[in-house]
């Protein structure tokens, strides 16, 4: 990874996002070199992703993208890297897609034998990070409750569709889930998936009372160690621009790779997805 190829990083990460969504989706379909996925109204995996690299997306495929989501009552959504061809952007614009938000993808090379313990120096002595046993239903539910807490307004319960997707993701054989404990309290949680040399970090939350105490950095370090254990040469994480996740990742050696664009096609009666 000495000569960084950002297009290749995007290809690997976007493919991982797409196939991870397929693994827990209730419905999915290929779209050019990527996928469309649906997990129920209100699900965060209602999106199309992973395409725009290997070949052009045809007009018929873009029409199928719109129909895949609209027929299920949700806004069509396209998540794209900045390396998507202009023809794809024009095709989406012609169909009424508009920009909703940007997301930042950060990357970090992983080197065999790297000492990751130094990344957590300065964290509280009582903080420990444990991998969740996917066969332990109590542990899995605890993980989903903590990991999902940061994705809903504070004090509100998680929607049922979040629980369903969270439980499926935590039990997915391709993922590893971690909980950070402080003084017997599950203070934070996050997941990772490892495949094809890439460790993808996602779904991290820290309870408000335990923020700014190194919990998220400890969770990142634990998942990087898992990636090294499984032979990864690269780690990547996605974040909204400027939030603590981005800053914590950069403190641990991550660098910005690219910004993703999230495009949606609003329509009467179509429910937006997170």
Automatic annotation (TrEMBL):
Cross-referenced InterPro entries: Acyl_CoA_acyltransferase, GNAT_dom
Keywords, alphabetical: Transferase
Domain of life: Bacteria
Keyword Transferase in record: yes
Matches recorded under Gene3D superfamilies: 3.40.630.30
Matches recorded under Pfam families: Acetyltransf_1 (PF00583)
Annotated GO MF terms: acyltransferase activity, transferring groups other than amino-acyl groups
Keyword NAD included in the entry's annotation: no
Occurrences of domain N-acetyltransferase (ranges): 127-274
This protein's name: Acetyltransferase
Native organism: Corallococcus coralloides (strain ATCC 25202 / DSM 2259 / NBRC 100086 / M2)
